[in-house]
């Protein structure tokens, strides 16, 4: 009798609940946002009082929604050991080359990682290694004819490009384009430090100013991993000093880049570091709530729905404001996940599979919370069928299209098509102004993909009711250039909450479709990510 009743309720929801559970929730979203995005939470920095307050706020609401704790000792907290490091403002590097050139932190360079695994009482030899890549599967090796043991290596951002999809993924970037990957390669070759030259994305003082702000904050890493290699990102204006009197000048290196014909070589100059670091060890929590599915057959399969609750915290003051509130990145996504948890906890019969509601820390520090969770899953990895990540919501107006970031990599694309059709929405690709594959690489869905779990982020598209496509692109550009990762991503922004609620409706439909589908969720053959079979 009970099962029949549940089935009747389930189909009643499908027929009549189109948005009815969400239409009333705008007030809830505003309330969450007014807390999480306020100065009280001090920008929700990882390992800060503001971050701890946020975690407690989330746990309090998950308790209220009667979700099952999935963290440490029957709490909602999955504690993550972390290490923090920040250089002092007097840090400098000195280039010794028949004289001395002194470079100051901020103006001339920033630490990409300040890890400090280097003790350098004497000048260190340097070598240029092109892109800094060793990729045997592509028969490419910048380290082939050079010994870099005990040296600081210098490499240019990016990787080889090609029209051939079998060579460095053609138009799509590979893992070798990441600075972290290049640093690990350098370490494996015996290098003691790295210098990254952002010579092609950083062409103006304004570009370098953004890098100063981005790398001003404390460098945080997972404490159980090896301390990151000490690495520097150099203002391209100062790059010629590194190559002075060497076999090739920096202008020659730029010509090599244009012709894809890098040569690796030792430099004449040597480097001396003069830096001190403030360090700390701490724990920061992911917040995890669990909702069991209603099907005896399917409840041991899991969908993980994520949003990162951290932001940058307190940073460089801009117009006397030093709180980086992160309202659209990602307090509003956290508010959405809270609302989804509330909605489904009140109607768990709608879900045959189980859902894990996961609020992540450390996303802004390198996907730390999601990487830790993917490596320390509370359930068997093979039982996790998919990840839906939420990093922002629609805020500009009534959208009529959506973009599935990463959808083309897996069969989640089929689920997205069903949801789009049911909501009378068009599916479109990321516009040319924004790199499609790189968009997938810049938030927590990447950590799940690396673990072999199909993942997706669903964004509003560019087709709007009363705004032209060109105007929508300009609104995004305005946000990215003027508010993203600044103190002005705050509560003073104009937000169309009806658009946000519509976006949440799309997300809830996607979760419901995934939880009840008979389709197998798997990576496409051409995807660079695949499940690792037992």
Outline the structure in words.
The chain has 534 residues and is an alpha/beta fold. It is built from 14 helices and 22 strands. It has helices at residues 2-16, 26-36, 49-64, 179-188, 205-214, 239-243, 250-259, 327-346, 368-375, 412-422, 436-440, 445-450, 469-482, 497-516; strands at 68-69, 77-87, 92-96, 100-104, 109-113, 124-128, 134-135, 140-141, 152-156, 193-197, 219-222, 231-234, 265-274, 277-291, 302-308, 313-318, 321-324, 354-360, 384-389, 401-405, 426-427, 455-460. Helix 2 (26-36) crosses helix 8 (327-346) and helix 10 (412-422) packs across helix 14. 45% of the residues are buried.
Provide key terms for this protein.
ten-stranded mixed β-sheet; Glucose Oxidase, domain 1; 534 residues; 14 helices; alpha/beta; 2 domains; globular; Aminopeptidase; eight-stranded mixed β-sheet; single chain; 30% helix
Can you lay out the helices and strands and say which pair or pack?
Elements: H1 2-16, H2 26-36, H3 49-64, E1 68-69, E2 77-87, E3 92-96, E4 100-104, E5 109-113, E6 124-128, E7 134-135, E8 140-141, E9 152-156, H4 179-188, E10 193-197, H5 205-214, E11 219-222, E12 231-234, H6 239-243, H7 250-259, E13 265-274, E14 277-291, E15 302-308, E16 313-318, E17 321-324, H8 327-346, E18 354-360, H9 368-375, E19 384-389, E20 401-405, H10 412-422, E21 426-427, H11 436-440, H12 445-450, E22 455-460, H13 469-482, H14 497-516
Parallel strand pairs: 6-9, 9-10, 10-12, 15-18, 15-19, 19-22, 20-21
Antiparallel strand pairs: 1-14, 2-11, 2-14, 3-4, 3-13, 5-12, 6-13, 7-8, 14-18, 16-17, 20-22
């Amino acid at each position: 009798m009970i099962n029949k009743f549940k089935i009747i309720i389930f189909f009643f929801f499908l027929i009549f609940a189109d948005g009815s559970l969400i239409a009333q929730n705008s007030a809830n979203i505003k309330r969450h946002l007014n807390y999480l995005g306020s100065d009280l939470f001090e920008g929700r920095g990882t390992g800060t009082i503001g971050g701890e307050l946020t975690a407690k706020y989330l746990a309090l609401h998950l308790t209220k929604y009667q979700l099952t704790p999935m963290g440490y000792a029957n709490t909602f907290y999955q504690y993550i050991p972390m290490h923090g490091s920040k250089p002092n403002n007097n840090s400098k590097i000195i280039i010794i080359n028949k004289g001395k050139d002194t470079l100051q932190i901020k103006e001339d360079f920033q630490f990409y990682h300040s890890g400090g695994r280097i003790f350098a009482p004497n000048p260190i030899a340097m070598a240029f290694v092109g892109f800094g890549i060793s990729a045997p599967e592509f028969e490419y090796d910048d380290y082939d004819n050079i010994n870099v043991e005990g040296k600081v290596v210098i490499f240019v951002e990016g990787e080889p490009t090609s029209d051939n999809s079998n060579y460095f993924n053609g138009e799509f970037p590979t893992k070798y384009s990441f600075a972290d990957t290049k640093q690990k390669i350098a370490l494996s070759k015996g290098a003691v430090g790295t210098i990254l030259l952002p010579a092609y994305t950083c062409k103006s003082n304004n570009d370098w100013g953004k890098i100063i702000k981005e790398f001003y904050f404390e460098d945080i890493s997972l404490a159980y991993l090896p301390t990151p290699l000490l690495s520097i990102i150099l203002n391209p204006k100062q790059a010629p000093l590194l190559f002075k009197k060497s076999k090739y000048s920096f202008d020659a290196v730029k010509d090599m880049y244009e012709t894809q014909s890098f040569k690796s070589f030792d430099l004449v100059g040597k480097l001396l570091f003069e830096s001190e670091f403030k360090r700390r060890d701490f724990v920061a929590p992911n917040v995890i709530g669990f909702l069991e599915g209603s099907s005896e057959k399917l409840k041991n399969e899991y969908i993980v729905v994520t949003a990162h609750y951290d932001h940058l915290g307190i940073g460089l003051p801009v117009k006397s404001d030093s709180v980086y509130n992160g309202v659209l990145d990602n307090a509003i996504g956290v508010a959405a996940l809270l609302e989804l948890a509330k909605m489904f906890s009140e109607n768990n019969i709608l879900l045959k599979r189980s859902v894990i509601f996961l609020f992540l820390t450390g996303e802004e520090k390198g996907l730390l919370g999601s990487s830790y969770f993917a490596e320390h899953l509370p359930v068997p990895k093979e039982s996790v069928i998919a990840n839906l990540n939420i990093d922002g919501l629609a805020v500009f107006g009534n959208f009529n299209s959506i973009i599935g970031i990463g959808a083309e990599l897996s069969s989640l694309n089929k689920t997205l098509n069903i949801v789009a059709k049911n909501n009378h929405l068009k599916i479109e690709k990321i516009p040319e102004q924004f790199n499609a594959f790189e968009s997938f690489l810049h938030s927590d869905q990447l950590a799940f993909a690396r673990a072999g779990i199909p993942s997706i982020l669903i964004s509003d598209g560019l087709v709007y009711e009363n705004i032209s496509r060109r105007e929508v692109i300009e609104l995004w550009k305005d946000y990215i250039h003027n508010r993203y990762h600044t103190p002005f991503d705050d509560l003073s922004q104009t937000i169309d909450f009806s658009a946000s609620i519509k976006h949440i409706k799309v997300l809830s439909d996607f979760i419901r479709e995934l939880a009840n589908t008979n389709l197998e969720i798997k990576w496409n053959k051409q995807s660079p990510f695949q499940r690792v079979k037992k």
